[in-house]
TrEMBL record:
This is Methyltransferase domain-containing protein. Pfam families: Methyltransf_25. The lineage of its organism: Bacteria, Pseudomonadati, Bacteroidota, Bacteroidia, Bacteroidales. InterPro entries: Methyltransf_25, SAM-dependent_MTases_sf. Residues 48-143 form the Methyltransferase domain.
Amino acid sequence: MAMTEKKMDAMQGHWVLARLGKRILRPGGMEMTRKMLEKLNVSTDDDVVEFAPGLGYTARLTVAKKPRSYTAVELNEEAAALVRRNVEPAYPALNVVTGNAADTGLPDSYATKVYGEAMLTMQSMEKKDAIVAEAARILKPGGRYGIHEIALQPAEISDEKKREIRHELQMGIRTSVHPLTRREWEELLGRHGMQVEYVYENGMLLLEPKRMIDDEGLWRFLLIQLRMLFNRNARQAVLRMRSCFRKYRRHLTGITIVARKM
C-alpha cells in the first residue's frame, strides 16, 4: 500500500512506524522482548500461543526454538496474513486464529506458554481483565504468561497525572492508551491466578536514535530517516510521538512480566 500523506496522517502510530520500515514496535525494544522470551524458556516440549503478533518479529524468535506448536491469535485477516507471510516460511506448522484475544476459541488448558506484547496497554481495564482471563483459561496449570507493555511510574503517581499522560499519549499515538503502574500490572495478573516470577523495566526510548539503531541496525535506521524526510505527514507523526515520550520520560517505562499459572 502506498504511503500517501493522507493515509499516514490518519494511521495509528505503530502502523506509521511499520510503514516507514520499523520492525521493532515494542515499548522496551528488542532487549526487553529477548528477556521476556528468555524467562518464558520456550522449548520443543511447549505449545505456545501469541496474542497479536503484529509483524511477527517475536514470533520468528519463538519458532526458532522449535516448539511443539505455535498459534498466533490476530484480530483481523489482514494482520493474520502478515503473520503467515513473515513466519510460515520458518515454521510451516504455524497455526493462525483470526479472532479476539479475549475470546480465542481455543480449548481450555491448550498451551504451556502464552505471551503478548504492546497490546494490553491499548485496552480498557475491563478488556485487560478479559484478555488476561483468557490467557489463564487456555494455559495449563504451571504454564507461563509473558507480557511486554508500557508502565507508569512512580508507584504513587496521582490519578490526575495518570489521566494527563493517558490523554497526551492518545493524542500522540492516535489510539487508545491505558498504561498501568508496575503494581497495577502485577495485581491484574494476580487477580487471574498468576504468580509473578520475573519483572524487568526499561526506558521508554522507542524513538530515540540509539535505541532505534540498537533495535533496527544502522542501515535500517538511516532508511527510516530517509523515508521520513520525503513524507511530511509521517515525519510529523513520528516527531509528535517522540515529543510525547520525551515529555513524560520520567513517568513512562517499558515493562515485561512473566508469571506462572497457579
